[in-house]
């Protein structure tokens, strides 16, 4: 692959990341969090690259968020020393890995059941207790205790374990459900106070409704991931514009079988099948009227009916994906550029870390 | 990770491949192809593992099919010496890589435009012409020339290039469109004969309707991939039963937030978002009434409403994915077992080879 000049000369498909936009996105969100009085703890799932996490920390983030131990290991080994792991860690091998990680960095995990807490409790020791938050389901309908009462009971159970330290509440909210989050956190805070338990952290997150985070009166930490690159779903959510999207997938038109059809050399192995509510598979930057109607693993089929000018075979065109995080997980590396000028190739170091 | 004993002891999520079923699936399809008088040229996209391709060749396959050059490089380097690359290869760097590959093995590629042919023609030489097939669109609406007339003209154009050799027709058919394929191939064969061109290979493929391939009177090579593992989509197509599915994704129940909800530690990073016409994200082997209603990147949300017995936190359960090929592309390695007994860990050597 070409290592200098325009990124348009790269062999396709290639994931291009505009560092100017990355830096702008980080600065914008950090400034917002600072003004809102919220600690930023970016979720690294979007980029999976230690160098970019360090940019976020340098801008003012208090630490990072990972979802899986094997991801956290990559970032800890790269020198990042404050990690929140927002996952119920279960199973002997994972608990052993967690222990090693805990000896290396400041580690916080979540739990939503006594089962998870019991596993943690027997793994750690009172000499160096593990920091544990209670995960709360405030409407996301994924993991999490269901009521403030349950949250309080689990917090008490954690606090009773000499090897663990209860430090806060964490939720994975749906976009635009801030009121639910506030109510759940407020009620639990009241119950915790009655129970004599201190609650240091109230952690919420999500990029889509990030810019309404200032309205909180109780949350004090915010986890967001996608904002560093942005994507088509965040443009739709009103979070940003297409010009704020740092990730483009560079593709080549490999076939023009009919007047209205183009086929690109990037399929679900590059763009993923994630629709996120869209009916097509990405925004075609260079031909905004083009519609990516279908993907197979290595091909995108594009309907050009609405295009006045149509791309030719061999032409390179850029796509903004529906969902940027899942694209990062498909790529061994990305190409960093500044306004189109190639700068460096980076490994996606935490790609494929599923456990 | 545990390297002996039951695969159920592996840390999750983990992709389990039952080698007994793999061998049975290969033998079944090879026998069918032999009896139908068709040469088998398996598509390696499903497994992406040279060792499994060698099993297919040992059973009687004439060579393999790859979609991308970087995949073909992996298999050529592993000693496989007859590869069909079913992709329009465009761009200088790819053509250079193609040239190196052509010097290493017996290589055949496809083209559906004079643009593609021109690139190939200038890259290769008359001393060692490259074998080229014309890709035909017989209803798949992806790449391919649109009519037998166009196919013949492009075949003539290829035959006129001293550095290329026209060797046949290739199509990517939709399931159950054998009649279209037959008609397109028959008509083109007639036109090619009139033009004095020999056509050595008529190549069709696809696992879903593989067992009707015997009805062809003209196709002589068959490309199929998924049959080696099988998946939920092939069970639905009537190609096989759940017991013929070699790939299971082993997961752990990490949360039971409500009576009817379980959350697994495998999300779209393990199962992919590929629905293939289903409305849920895989078949839960151990709880067939359970429905995987949603995926985020690291979590699957499972509706247990219809289950009389329900899984507990910490329990390991197996999933047959909707689409097996895309799962292989997410995993650095898979765990081979024989009826549940761990045998070996294999790298998915051609994972993530997108160009």
TrEMBL record, chains A, B:
The species this protein was found in: Maritalea porphyrae
SUPFAM superfamilies in the cross-refs: PLP-binding barrel
Family: Belongs to the DSD1 family.
Protein's UniProt keywords contain Metal-binding: no
Record keywords: Lyase
UniProt superkingdom: Bacteria
Entry-linked CDD domains: PLPDE_III_LS_D-TA_like
UniProt KW Repressor keyword: no
Residues in the signal sequence: none
Domain D-serine dehydratase-like: 246-338
The name this protein goes by in its record: Alanine racemase
UniProt-listed InterPro entries: Ala_racemase_N (IPR001608), D-amino_acid_metab_enzyme (IPR051466), D-ser_dehydrat-like_dom (IPR026956), D-ser_dehydrat-like_sf (IPR042208), PLP-binding_barrel (IPR029066)
């Amino acid at each position: 692959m070409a290592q200098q000049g325009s990124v348009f000369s790269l062999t396709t498909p290639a994931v291009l990341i505009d560092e100017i936009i990355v830096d702008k996105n980080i600065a914008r969100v950090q400034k917002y969090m600072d003004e809102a009085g919220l600690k930023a703890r970016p979720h690294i799932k979007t980029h999976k690259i230690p160098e970019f996490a360090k940019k976020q920390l340098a801008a003012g983030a208090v630490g990072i968020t990972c979802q899986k131990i094997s991801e956290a290991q990559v970032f800890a080994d790269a020198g990042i020393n404050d990690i929140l792991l927002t996952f119920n860690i279960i199973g002997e091998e994972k608990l052993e890995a967690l222990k090693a990680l805990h000896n290396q960095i400041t580690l916080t995990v979540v739990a939503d059941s006594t089962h998870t807490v019991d596993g943690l409790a027997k793994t750690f020791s009172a000499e160096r207790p593990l920091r544990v938050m209670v995960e709360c389901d405030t409407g996301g309908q994924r993991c999490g205790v269901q009521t403030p009462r349950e949250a309080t009971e689990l917090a008490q159970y954690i606090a009773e374990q000499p090897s663990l330290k209860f430090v806060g509440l964490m939720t994975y909210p749906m976009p635009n459900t801030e009121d639910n989050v506030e109510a759940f956190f407020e009620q639990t805070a009241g119950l915790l106070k009655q129970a004599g338990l201190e609650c240091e952290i109230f952690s919420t997150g999500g990029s889509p409704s990030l810019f309404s985070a200032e309205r909180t009166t109780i949350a004090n930490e915010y986890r967001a991931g996608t904002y560093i690159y942005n994507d088509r779903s965040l443009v739709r959510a009103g979070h940003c514009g297409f010009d704020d999207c740092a990730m483009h997938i560079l593709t080549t038109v490999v076939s023009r079988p009919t007047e209205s059809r183009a086929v690109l050399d990037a399929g679900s192995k590059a763009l993923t099948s994630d629709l996120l509510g869209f009916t097509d598979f990405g925004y075609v930057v260079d031909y905004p009227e083009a519609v990516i109607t279908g993907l197979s693993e290595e091909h995108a089929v594009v309907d050009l009916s609405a295009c006045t000018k149509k791309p030719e075979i061999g032409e390179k065109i850029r796509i903004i994906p529906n969902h940027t995080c899942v694209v990062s997980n498909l790529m061994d590396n990305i190409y960093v550029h500044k306004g189109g000028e190639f700068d460096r190739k980076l490994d996606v170091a935490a790609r494929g870390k599923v456990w």
